[in-house]
Amino acid sequence: MTRPVRSPLIPIRPELTPELLAWAQRAESVLDRELPPANQMPERLHQAMRYSVLGGGKRLRALLAYAAGRCFAAPPECADASAAALEIIHAYSLIHDDLPAMDNDDLRRGKPTCHIAFGEAMAILAGDALQALAFEVLTSDTQSRADAGTRIKMLRTLAQACGAHGMAGGQAFDLDAVGQRLSHSELERMHAYKTGALIRAAVLLGTLGAGRVDATELDRMGAVGARIGLAFQIRDDILDIEGDTEVIGKRQGADIARDKPTYPSIIGMEASRALAQSLRDETISLLAGHGTAAESLRDLAHYAVDRRS
Amino acid sequence: MTRPVRSPLIPIRPELTPELLAWAQRAESVLDRELPPANQMPERLHQAMRYSVLGGGKRLRALLAYAAGRCFAAPPECADASAAALEIIHAYSLIHDDLPAMDNDDLRRGKPTCHIAFGEAMAILAGDALQALAFEVLTSDTQSRADAGTRIKMLRTLAQACGAHGMAGGQAFDLDAVGQRLSHSELERMHAYKTGALIRAAVLLGTLGAGRVDATELDRMGAVGARIGLAFQIRDDILDIEGDTEVIGKRQGADIARDKPTYPSIIGMEASRALAQSLRDETISLLAGHGTAAESLRDLAHYAVDRRS
Fold it and tell me: Is A1 among the domain residues?
């Protein structure tokens, strides 16, 4: 496994390490297999689901699951179902976030959003069906090293990360926050729910799928996931200001245009950068005990902070 | 347990047997406990979730789970988590079905629909959070007699009933069917997905939660659930024509107004009634081996066909 030369700000794909690239390709093929065929009834629904999940996206959540499993010497197949479930949940959340009643976005991953391509009703249903599919995929996992009790824990971890005290709750905070001046701790909670919960779940699912991991180690990996998640979201806020629409694949300035509170607007740009970097450094410290097995997870922590899209 | 005098067409609540009434009240209190508190952040989301789940609804899916468990001598606590999960899923599906982009309904269970009361964005999120909560509740079940492997099967059964080959798929069929002339078998498939899958899942979850049930018995209970589900939907189609808005709690004639294919429009009113009755009779035959333990499940099969709302 060669470590690539990394500039401070890099788009992920060209500089993906061979290990990360192999996992991203692996996730794509697992997703292709798990999604219902486009030529099978109800066809338009299946097409909308495939359109939104396949052929785009950073696959960060899948990569985190594979990378977390790797810390505990698990082969990638142990995280296949988790990786697919996480990316399916993420895709569903983007479909619903983009809806006219929500963020009303017409561009996502550089192509028309699901409701532009398939209509609003079908987009709502595609999101709903994808959420169910994520749980179905995880219940059908036969390759992880987790015993049945641990698999139920994985399902609970995913469900909690999606619900009112996770992603959906974060979106509700976000709705209510438009035009508000949040405190730093309120903003942190909003981001922990909105983006952090699923990224933390990705690290936990990868860890749990690796087999017997003690409670201390699991807590530590939860802390790693929470830090990567927050760093990722701070970077998102920064890119909303500094990014280029063509590179980030969605409208630059969208958060500012909607008067949404962001890290740069609340603590300032330089403090935002410094915070993201310190979260990355804490992550790397937390992973110190894993040596080279944690190399890809460290790479992803760097990526969360340095990414350009 | 006294069996009530039953007229051919009855509203359920006044004539609920003591056993069914006790289960309906039990489901209500489990739901109240499982839903997040209205005064806890994010408050509006929690309020929208509670508004849509509590204080209304027939609780048919919960009752089916309890009644199925009763066939195998399971005490009601074995089906508490399943009952709550099923009703939460059902409530989420109603919120999304009622959205402006979908059926655009303003009245549900005799009160304003969720998006009228809380706004469209919050209604989308409440539905999303409820779907996640249903799975979370089922992963947190500690009272059923199911072992961990069976609990995963219960989660898979629920996920499949919600997804592209279940409820969400049925809604997609429904969208694409507006203004179409479906064949009887196409209509049956649409209804099997849209309503039948979750009702069948209710019977299966109640059965699986009762502990060790052999595959033949499980298949039989699946057949019971499928028949009750289809009979229930045929009755729904009939009530859309014959029902009274005040009694059914939603707009009478809504399907006709939208030019949706229904059983009466495809096979005629009398054939629809006869089909529902024959599905009920088949259900009762399938349950013959359970004697008095199946009394409530038989009552529910009658209810599916005779209900007035």
Answer: no
